[in-house]
Amino acid sequence: MEKEPTSLRPAKIVLAQERLNIQTDLSEQELDTVVEFLSKKIDKYIGEHTNETKKRLLLMALEISAEYFDVRRKYQNLEQNSKVADKEISMLNELLNNEMEKSAENTTL
User: Fold this and answer.
1) Residue 39, number of CB atoms within 10 A of its CB
2) Helical pair 28-45 and 51-108, crossing angle rounded to 10 deg
3) Which of 17, 23, 20 is nearest to 66 (CA)?
4) Whole-Å CA distances, 60 to 4, 39, 51, 53, 56
5) What are phi and psi of 75, to 5 degrees?
6) Has residue 67 been placed in a domain?
7) Among the ranges given (21-25, 41-45, 55-59), the one the predictor scored with the smallest mean pLDDT
8) Is 17 a member of any domain?
9) Cα distance between residue 90 and residue 96, in whole Å
């Protein structure tokens, strides 16, 4: 089942030696994962930009990463729901087949 939307909460993070105050609906674990993911990308790509440019890039990257992890979480939920639905369909199919066999036996008697 999909996670209910939650309200935003304030959070403080550090990216590329910049302290940022943000609003997020991610859990602490999810936010830590996003920050770790971004830190690796930042180390590789940002280089020596001015502080204002760097801060804008960080905020943009954070927003994109949060959206990515949200989509990934929704996909995982859908995948899990699909597995549950497949099992239920299989069970219903088996029940239907059993009932059809019983019905066929009763009509031949």
Assistant:
1) 16
2) 130
3) 23
4) 25, 13, 14, 11, 6
5) -60, -45
6) yes
7) 41-45
8) yes
9) 10
Helix (H, G, I), strand (E, B) or coil at 14: strand
* Total of domains in the chain: 1
Residue 42's CB: how many other CB atoms inside 10 A? 19
pTM: 0.49
13 within a domain of the structure (yes/no): yes
25 Cβ neighbours under 8 A, 6+ residues apart? 5, 6, 7, 8, 9
| 61 contact partners, CB below 8 Å, separation of at least 6 | 15, 38, 41, 42
Using 50, 70 and 90 to split pLDDT, how confident is the model at 83? very high
Chain position carrying tokens 């674990």: 29
The residue type of 14 is V
Report the C-alpha gap between 51 and 35 in whole angstroms: 18
Domain ranges, residue 49:
9-108
